[in-house]
Design brief:
The chain has 441 residues and is α/β, with parallel strands linked by helices. The chain is 39% helix and 15% strand. The strands form three sheets. It has an eight-stranded mixed β-sheet with strand order 3-2-1-4-5-6-7-8, with helices on both faces. The protein has a five-stranded parallel β-sheet with strand order 10-9-13-14-15, with helices on one face.
Length: 441
């Protein structure tokens, strides 16, 4: 009888929880992974090239209180090390890259953080290590960037290193779907790498979905976000048309959503926010051009969504004009600064864009967002000043010339706002329209 093939040492060490996990990038993707592997019984090294972020995390300053407690417990038990020193990763056996992948000023993918991370790892990785990329990027990144960089150090996927692509699918603020219960796409450069990735993630995720190759997983992640971006663009365009025809778009959506098949409700807003939806579609549109394919629908959706803050600004200007006021010197309150409700994430936030535009026009601005205690207003690369969250009171609301409902957090007294606000610009469909007082935008 033929003996069973021996499992690679890294898989044995993972099964015994002896392999040290290294998370590269400690943001909204990396920190949940750090906490998940700590709770699964692993020793973890968290790396971020920003030393200030490391200092803040060591002081317990984190965007999630539950994560703070886990990090503190990990530090106390000596199962967690936080560092901005690459040499501290020398003992890591499974690296997971969770670095930002933004667009540059010409909307071209900027994967420099991935290149920096894999260059660092290639110089440190020991034979047999797992190297997994979670950052969103264009199809081909794993095989065109990760594999050749490792090859320069004599590391070959499936032979002496395991290369995995497994895109993050985190939805900040979603209490129903978490890292644990969101199905995890996992791909590898060959069967041995795929199996190593499957074992690695099986400790922190309930359901692994293996796919045949990294390009499939890379494109699947982009397709998920592009579908949402396109449908939101449709909802935003329908909102513009509905307003011009004096139709309540939210009533239209509620009516359409009663159809039990063939329709999914997407809601308009003041523009897209977060790292994924405003950015990811352009990774595929850029890659498509290298194949002489024009991703016209993706590009058009992006144009529509990017134009929404300007549309809301125009609605504010018109509403104030009807009351004999200009934006300049008007007291304007923005309700909600984060890009979506019940999170503190300001990345690509349409609310921040509105704040910048209104400030540039001379408005006397304030904001109320319990999720964002303060933020630094930056115009043309220069920090103008720090603004702080205002708690809502009857007197404060009465003093405002205009209140812009930009982000609909749950823990807000919207009835209080309606009672005392003289003019409300509603970008989220919270209120039924009311002539002269509540203006949909």
């Amino acid at each position: 009888m033929a003996p069973h093939p021996q499992k690679p040492p890294i898989i044995e060490r993972l099964n015994q929880r002896q392999a040290r996990i290294g998370i590269i990038g400690l943001g909204y993707v990396g920190l949940p992974l750090v906490c998940a592997f700590l709770e699964a019984g692993f020793k973890v090294t968290g790396f971020d090239r920003d030393p200030h972020k490391i200092e803040n995390l060591e002081l317990g300053l984190c965007f999630n209180e539950a994560f703070t407690a886990i990090l503190q417990q990990g530090t106390a038990r000596k199962s967690l090390a936080l560092t901005s020193n690459a040499s501290d990763l020398a003992h890591v056996e499974a690296f997971i890259i969770c670095v930002p992948t933004p667009l540059d000023s010409t909307r071209t993918p900027d994967i420099s953080a991935i290149v920096d991370a894999i260059t660092m790892i290639a110089a440190l990785a020991r034979p047999g290590s797992i190297i997994a990329l979670e950052s969103t990027s264009y199809p081909g990144t794993t095989e065109e960037i990760i594999v050749p960089t490792l090859g320069k150090q004599g590391l070959t996927p499936g032979s002496n290193v395991h290369v995995v692509y497994s895109p993050e699918r985190i939805d900040p603020g979603n209490v129903h779907y978490t890292l644990r219960n969101i199905p995890k796409l996992v791909s590898g450069v060959g069967p041995a790498c795929l199996e190593a990735g499957r074992v690695l993630y099986s400790f922190i995720v309930d359901h692994i979905v293996p796919v045949s190759q990294p390009r499939v997983a890379e494109m699947a992640k982009l397709m998920e976000n592009i579908q949402r971006a396109v449908n939101i663009a449709l909802a935003n365009e329908m909102k513009l048309l509905a307003h011009s025809m004096d139709i309540d778009i939210y009533e239209v959506i509620r009516a359409a959503a009663t159809k039990p098949f063939g329709f999914t409700a997407y809601y308009p807003g003041p523009g897209l926010g977060g790292h994924c939806i405003p950015v990811d579609p352009f990774y595929l549109a850029w890659k498509a051009r290298t194949y002489n394919v024009d991703a016209r629908l993706i590009e058009l959706a992006g144009e529509i969504n990017r134009a929404m803050p300007a549309y809301v600004l125009e609605r504010i200007i018109m509403a104030l004009n009807e009351q004999g006021k200009a934006v300049k010197s008007s007291r304007i309150l923005l309700l909600g600064l984060s890009y979506k409700k019940n999170v503190n994430d300001l990345r690509e936030s349409a609310s921040v864009k509105l704040f910048e535009d209104l400030y540039s026009r001379g408005a006397q601005l304030s904001y109320s967002d319990p999720w964002v205690p303060f933020f630094d207003l930056c115009l043309h690369g220069t920090i103008i000043g720090r603004f702080h969250h205002y708690a809502l009171s009857d007197d404060f609301l009465i003093q405002q010339d205009c209140i812009v409902l930009a982000t609909q957090h749950d823990d807000v007294d919207y009835e209080q706002i309606a009672r005392h606000g003289a003019l409300i610009i509603d970008t989220r469909g919270v209120y039924p329209p009311q002539a002269g007082k509540i203006i949909p935008a």
